[in-house]
């Protein structure tokens, strides 16, 4: 859903510590299905509870001793880890019956996951909300639906890393391909600018999923992906 832009200050809630070698760690995991006898609304609520429980269990495994009750939240509700893990960034993203989970030491992070499927309104959304350079790139791609999801997951991951959500403005970031064809953040407007503050990666998640990770500080880090 497209939301109006807001002007809430950007939060920098992760307590950064110098660690330029720590990898971006990514997990793609199936979500246990909710009770099939539940109605649609109840199933969606149950799926959210299952996803939240999976995040808590994963944090307990990777960061033993974490106090979930002491978790902090940014101005727009993004959760941040409490001491002594305040220098760790984490972020989950759910799509269908799958969850993407990102964890990194010494940086803030946003991740986004989308299931590949037809997007009949993709071009119309892009023409209305994206920078013209992105629209031009999108129209030149042989698989428009896939290309749109590549842009969309990058934008979502960036907004989640910023701690703002789509209200930051879909037109404020501009992603463009580098020499390898991978998207990178070429320009960024607004309080999270400049683009040089942020590093990003398209994630290789197999033929059925499209995903992205964005983090700050913009230090080049290896990306480790675990998937079924």
> What is the molecular shape?
globular
How far is the first residue's CA from the last residue's CA? 30 Å
Summarize the helix and strand pattern as letters: EHEEEEEHHHEEEEE
Q: What do we call the CATH topology?
A: Ribosomal Protein L22, Chain A
State the helical fraction. Answer: 25-40%
- Which residues form runs of ≥5 with pLDDT under 50? 1-11
Mean pLDDT: 91
Class from helix and strand fractions: alpha+beta
Based on DSSP secondary structure assignment, what is the total number of beta strands?
Answer: 11
SSE inventory with pairings:
Elements: E1 24-30, H1 40-62, E2 72-73, E3 79-80, E4 88-95, E5 98-105, E6 108-115, H2 122-129, H3 132-139, H4 144-162, E7 173-177, E8 183-188, E9 199-203, E10 209-216, E11 223-226
Parallel strand pairs: 1-11
Antiparallel strand pairs: 1-5, 2-3, 4-5, 6-10, 7-8, 9-10
Describe this structure in words.
The chain is α+β, with helices and mostly antiparallel strands and 228 residues long. The chain has a single domain, classed as 4'-phosphopantetheinyl transferase domain (Ribosomal Protein L22, Chain A). The protein contains four helices and eleven strands, in the order E-H-E-E-E-E-E-H-H-H-E-E-E-E-E. The protein has helices spanning 40-62, 122-129, 132-139, 144-162; strands at residues 24-30, 72-73, 79-80, 88-95, 98-105, 108-115, 173-177, 183-188, 199-203, 209-216, 223-226. Strand 2 (72-73) and strand 3 form a beta hairpin.
């Amino acid at each position: 859903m497209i939301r109006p832009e807001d002007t809430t200050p950007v939060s920098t809630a992760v307590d950064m510590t110098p660690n330029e070698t720590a990898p971006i760690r990514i997990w793609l995991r199936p979500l246990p299905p909710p009770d099939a006898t539940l109605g649609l609304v109840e199933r969606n609520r149950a799926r959210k509870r299952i996803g939240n429980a999976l995040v808590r269990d994963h944090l307990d495994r990777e960061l033993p001793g974490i106090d979930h009750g002491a978790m902090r939240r940014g101005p727009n509700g993004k959760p941040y880890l409490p001491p002594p893990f305040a220098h760790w960034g984490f972020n989950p993203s759910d799509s269908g019956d799958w969850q993407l989970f990102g964890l990194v030491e010494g940086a803030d992070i946003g991740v986004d996951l989308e299931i590949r499927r037809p997007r009949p309104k993709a071009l119309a959304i892009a023409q209305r909300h994206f920078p013209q350079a992105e629209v031009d790139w999108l129209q030149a791609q042989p698989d428009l639906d896939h290309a749109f999801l590549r842009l969309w997951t990058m934008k979502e991951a960036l907004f989640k890393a910023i701690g703002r959500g789509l209200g930051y403005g879909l037109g404020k970031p501009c992603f463009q391909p580098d020499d390898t064809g991978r998207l990178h953040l070429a320009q960024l407007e607004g309080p999270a600018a400049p683009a040089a503050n942020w590093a990003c990666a398209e994630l290789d998640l197999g033929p059925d999923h499209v995903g992205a990770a964005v983090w700050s500080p913009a230090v080049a880090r290896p990306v480790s992906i675990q998937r079924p």
